[in-house]
Backbone:
């Protein structure tokens, strides 16, 4: 994965990061040293995951609580 950081930069965007495949993907990216922008509907859950990953892997995290399936969700 270090090649990915060199190619794409130090940040990764993970949608659906509050559970399931998205959460697992975030864990694996954090383990490989990526800083993470975590997106999902549950802000409380996202913040908890972000804090845990930041502490365990010494990475930066940002949280965006929104439902990306909704039209105009980021306005």
Residues:
């Amino acid at each position: 994965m270090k090649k990915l950081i060199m190619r794409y930069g130090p940040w990764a965007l993970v949608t659906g990061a509050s559970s399931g495949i998205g959460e697992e993907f975030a864990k694996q990216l954090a383990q490989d040293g990526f800083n993470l922008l975590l997106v999902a509907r549950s802000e409380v859950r996202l913040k908890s995951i972000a804090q845990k990953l930041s502490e365990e892997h010494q990475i930066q995290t940002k949280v965006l609580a929104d439902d990306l399936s909704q039209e105009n969700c980021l306005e």
Remarks:
- The first strand starts at residue 11 and ends at 15.
